[in-house]
Amino acid sequence: MWVYELSEKEGVLEKGTREGEIEGKVKVKVLSSGINRRDIWIKKGLYPGIKYPAVLGSDACVSYENKTYLLNPNIDWGSNPMVPQETYSILGLEHDGCFAEHVWVTSDRLFKVPAHLNIEEAGVLGLAGLTAYRALCSNCKVTKNDRVFINGIGGAVAQNAMLFALAIGCEVHVSSSSGDKIEQAIQMGATAGCSYKEENWGKNYKKKEGGFDVIIDSAGGRGFKELINLCNIGGRIGIYGGTRGNITDLSPQHLFFKQIHIFGSTMGNDVEFHQMLELVKTHKIRPVIDTVFNIHDINKAFEYAVDKERFGKIALQHD
Amino acid sequence: MWVYELSEKEGVLEKGTREGEIEGKVKVKVLSSGINRRDIWIKKGLYPGIKYPAVLGSDACVSYENKTYLLNPNIDWGSNPMVPQETYSILGLEHDGCFAEHVWVTSDRLFKVPAHLNIEEAGVLGLAGLTAYRALCSNCKVTKNDRVFINGIGGAVAQNAMLFALAIGCEVHVSSSSGDKIEQAIQMGATAGCSYKEENWGKNYKKKEGGFDVIIDSAGGRGFKELINLCNIGGRIGIYGGTRGNITDLSPQHLFFKQIHIFGSTMGNDVEFHQMLELVKTHKIRPVIDTVFNIHDINKAFEYAVDKERFGKIALQHD
Predict the structure, then answer these.
(1) N vs C: which end of chain A shows fewer Cβ within 10 Å?
(2) Chain A nearest C-alpha distance from B6 (Å)
(3) How close B155 comes to chain A (CA, Å)?
(4) Are residues B92 and B161 in the same domain?
(5) Bridge-partner residues for A26, per DSSP?
């Protein structure tokens, strides 16, 4: 079977081959896969525990014994729903991932594809859907009466969080540096949005639009204090990324007088994966795809993946 | 009836009088009261919404119709267990508080004193016990298998949190700038402790003693990152104060990779007050008292209250 593998930091993905069987796992044919930010970080060498050569790719829609499945990217989460056990990993590092002709997984990683999704949509849902579900539903425990703010609507987890919150019945607002992305979010059901570039943007947006009960963030950084300003008393903030670096001025007084809860999370457990799929199925939610590439153009796809104008996932069609 | 009232920022408490009745409330005789850090902040003028003249004092053991009660300092929390309603206040600002001969409260603020407590202990438990309970039990959901770290064991909330965690069966470690206070905590049941003054103290203490599942903090500041270092994967941090100012270098990556939850809280709802008293009763927990003053020496008591060497509450005996 062929694979695309990364042999060094910042390298290109080169076609290689893998032979042999893996005990306890089944070999499934990859129909489509998706690029995650995780793959981009690993390619740059900026991820804990990288080993070369690596076959990346955590998400896929696959075929096994003439049926189509979607992969759960968790490997060995373990029995504690709150945190993964030490042996936990994510498909695509250290286990060979989905940018390949076939992938070896335990059969309990195969989940039925919700009927309304096409092969490309099923192949980009797993990791970002799971991360969004844990942050929004398990941690922030969003309900339909919550006003939800998604900070930075350009990312796939953010977009899934928006779609999930809308499906649940929440009023959702978003931020972006791009007016176009805010417009696209509004077309998908968001009420309104704002730029996070201006000074005091959070305070000003709260004055204009009111406060928020649930805020989903992947930036951190100096702007995090504006999320605290945006936050209602009793608000919950789910954070799953840190593209803007360390949070530099978080007031404890704001945290405790406003009774704010901050939940760090990444990925989610297998029960959450199942619940996420149920939510997607019930509300016929479709993950946002920007572009579909052929798997053999994977290096082009990675180049395009860092384009800031993109809105939605990059899917890869396998032959 | 006489009261001790504050007429200006940084003023002394002067004896005055109050007359008249308050509709819907009962007049109860104060047997003992206690000074909280809140009273000290108000006296300094550093608290939201101060109005002069103010009769401070949120905690008391009282007598009403020949029975002894302990006061719940919450006024009008409202129906949402997560957050108080807008009309919420704490006894002692804006409603006249307990540094007085009598205090007017609604009769549902009167709680039976756990039998093992003396009058002074009952008069210092309420506010600090409630705040500790919400942070430790409701928010961090501590269980006996959790390793607990209390940052800054000098404060009353911290001491109650330690006592509650010990009663629940946890292994508890503490920090302080004072070796004496660490020693006192160990005598009360803590396993060990460390100074928070050294560079990298959290990282070093984790190496030596292992990580912690639940951390209780009232400092914030630059040192908060050491609490993140101390924290186990899946750890919970309850923060109810900010004596060291803004948190200045909180890594989002640490928050989400370690699945850390941070809970800001202050006070707690009426159900939590009841639960706190049950815990105190069941385990015969006694709040720590440093010194008992006579109420008429209240200005001396306030001067002593800021003494950094003190370990435990300052109780005030009323005539």
Answers:
(1) C
(2) 24
(3) 16
(4) no
(5) A105
Among A45, A154, A21, A151, which residue's Cα sits nearest to residue A93? Answer: A45
Q: What is the ipTM of this complex?
A: 0.96
Tokens of A204: 């000003």
In tens, the pLDDT along B151-197 reads 999 999 999 999 999 999 999 999 999 999 999 999 999 999 999 99
Give the domain extent around B162: 131-264
Do B57 and B40 reside in the same domain of the chain? yes
> Is residue B46 less than 8 Å (CB to CB) from chain A?
no
Q: What is the number of structural domains in chain B? A: 2
**Interchain contact B234–A (C-beta under 8 A):** yes
Q: Are residues A10 and A99 in the same domain?
A: yes
- A156 and A7 belong to one structural domain: no
B2 touches chain A (CB under 8 A): no
Chain B CA closest to residue A252: B242
B49 and B110 part of one domain: yes
Query: Are residues A287 and A209 part of one domain?
Result: no
DSSP 8-class letter at B160: H
**Token pair in block for residue B70:** 């302990």
Q: What is the pTM of this model?
A: 0.96
B152 touches chain A (CB under 8 A): no
Same domain, B111 and B19: yes
State whether B145 and B188 are in the same domain. Answer: yes
In chain A, which residue's Cα lies nearest the Cα of B255? A264
Residue A253: CB atoms within 10 A of its CB come to 16
Residue with tokens 């489509």: A32
Q: Is the pLDDT of residue B43 over 90?
A: yes
Predicted confidence (pLDDT) at residue A16 exceeds the cutoff of 90? yes
Q: Dump pLDDT digits (tens) for A41-79.
A: 999 999 888 999 999 999 999 999 999 999 999 999 999
CATH number for the domain spanning A201: value is 3.40.50.720
CA distances from B219 to B11, B128, B157 (A): 26, 16, 12
B94-124 confidence digits (pLDDT tens)? 899 999 999 999 999 999 999 999 999 999 9
